[in-house]
Amino acid sequence: MTDYDVLRVFCAPHGGYGNELGVVRDGSTLPEPADRQALAAKLGFSETVFVDDPERGVIDIYTPSTRLRFAGYPCVGAAWLLDVPELVVPAGTVGARQDGEFCWIEARPEWAAPRTLRRYATPAEVDALQVPPPGDWLYAWAWEDEAAGRVRARGFPGRGDGIEEDEATGAAALQLTGRLDRALNITQGRGSQLLTAPQPAGWVELGGRVFLER
C-alpha cells in the first residue's frame, strides 16, 4: 500500500471537525494518472493530493472520480504540510503563507469547478437541509451575521462518487467571496471554519487551521 498522510483542514478553534485530506508525499511512487485515480477512489477522501516536487510545491489533486485543476482545501493542507511560499497546480500558481494558527493560500475563484451557490433566509434552513439527489454541486449558505461577514454553509457534491456532504469546501468559499466581494468567516458542515478575504485583481485569500491526523 502506498504511504500517505491524513490531514484535517479547516478545523474549528478547538481542533475538531475539518475535512480529511489524503496526501501522498512521494508522488513518484504512483506516477501514472490512472494509478493515482485508483488510489484516490480506494481512499475515499473528498480529495487526495500527490506531491510531485515538495521544494517547488508541485501537486496533483484527485477526487474519488476525477482529476482537478485546482481545489481549495487540498491546497491549504498541502501548503501547511510542505511549508512552501507557493504551490503549482494545473490551473496556475497558488500563493501560500503561514500566519500563526492559520495557513493561507491565494487563488482565483474561476479556477475551481462551478458550484451552485444557493442562499437561504436563515442558518436554520441550511441546517435542516437533507442530502439532495445527485446533480449539480450545491453550496447552501445563509448569513449568520451579515454585518460581521459570518456565514453558515453546507456543501453537497452531488457527483455520485460516494460523498454525500463535503465537510469544508475551500473552492466554494472562494467563489462566494468573489461574488460578494467581502471577507467572510464561514462555518461549514458540522463545525469547520473557513476564512476568506478578497484581494486586488480578482484574487481571493483562503485560510484555515490544519492538523496532522496520521
List the helices and strands and how they pair.
Elements: E1 5-11, E2 19-24, H1 33-43, E3 48-53, E4 58-62, E5 67-68, H2 72-82, E6 86-89, E7 92-99, E8 102-107, E9 116-119, H3 123-127, E10 138-145, E11 150-156, H4 170-180, E12 184-188, E13 192-198, E14 204-212
Parallel strand pairs: 2-3, 9-10, 11-12
Antiparallel strand pairs: 1-2, 1-14, 3-4, 4-5, 6-7, 7-8, 8-14, 10-11, 12-13, 13-14
Helix pairs in contact: 2-4
Short description:
The chain has 4 helices and 14 strands. It has 214 residues and is α+β, with helices and mostly antiparallel strands.
Protein described:
The radius of gyration is 16 Å and the shape is globular. The chain is an alpha+beta fold. Strands 1, 2, 3, 4, 5, 6, 7, 8, 9, 10, 11, 12, 13 and 14 form a 14-stranded mixed β-sheet that branches. The chain has helices spanning about 35-45, 70-80, 125, 170-180; strands at about 5-10, 20-25, 50-55, 60, 65-70, 85-90, 90-100, 100-105, 115-120, 140-145, 150-155, 185-190, 190-200, 205-210. The protein is built from 4 helices and 14 strands. Strand 1 (about 5-10) and strand 2 form a beta hairpin. The longest helix has 11 residues, at about 35-45. The protein has 2 domains: about 5-110, Diaminopimelate Epimerase, Chain A, domain 1; about 110-200, Diaminopimelate Epimerase, Chain A, domain 1 (Roll), CATH 3.10.310.10.
